[in-house]
Sequence to fold (359 residues):
Amino acid sequence: MSPLYFQRIRPVTHYRYLFFLSQNYSFPVLRPLQEVILQRGDEVKWFLYGNEIDYTLLYANEIQINDIESIIEYNPHAVFVPGNVVPSFIPGVKVEIFHGLPSKKTKKNGQLYHYIIREMFDLYCTHGPQSTKIFEQLSHKYKNFSVIETGWSKLDPLFSKHDSIKKRKQKVIFFASTFSPRFSKARILYPYIKRMIHSHNYHWYITLHPKMPQDVVSLYQTLKSEKVTLLDATQVIESFSNADIMLCDTSSIMYEFLTQNKPVITFQTQEDEEIFINIKDINVLEQTIVHTLKNSDTYHKTIKQFVKDIHPYTDGKSSQRILDATVSMINGNNLPKKQKPWNIIRNFKLRLKFKYWKF
Fold:
């Protein structure tokens, strides 16, 4: 039997959507989805919250909604979330679309972050067979959410528009680092990258996690050179196509880059994976980078097989599949077998955060 909170849903022809986000890295995940929504003649509004998001990153034509009462009045059919939480007291089917591809990053107890179930979502739109299999197992366990494999909206521009990007004549290295003190190697790598900028004729794209400590950000901002392009988290996909290889520590962005079948060098990453070129000793890092740039084509076949499991979609239409899956659920299909729990503690904290106490 369908959960009670879905029984009032009826087929509609014009859909209202809400984007629910608190981090800057959500913008490039949601904008390809917004493009398809508007192409279909539907509407979408953005709800930004918290002190870790830059409210000025919204475009002039993107419609912002400012409080929970306005969301209730807007009454969205579905809410798309690239983060971890969404209140149950706002309307709409709650859709998890993730802020990154599955990675090996774990909590201290060994649990993979990507597969934590908080029982707040009705639909998980997964990226590829690897994550789909695990989420389907979790769906059988919890029975209060559905799983559809769609691919990831953030990667749509990489596969639909990259032919128009001008390729550099120089070899290009894309460096990315996460912010967590447990995983980030940005501070250690800074002097080596600085030296390589001066000693090799390579171009560097450099992006740091939005939560990176400001003193580390300031270090990399000193690397001003015609050989360096500094990128924020909303710009990375547009630059992937220009790069020949990536240098990274432990971040899901390395899986995003890998979907192009290009090699990734990881430095002192949390957990070794054969698909990456893992370097523990910083003294061999430079020669590894040079060698990989000269032989990058030799890695393509191995990477391609791996990518089939994490994100096999290269048609630039993942956003369309996400919307199709969402509309199907809105119209009463593929519903979870059970209703989500009350989640009293999490929802109380969210009511406290948003100062919303109406029931």
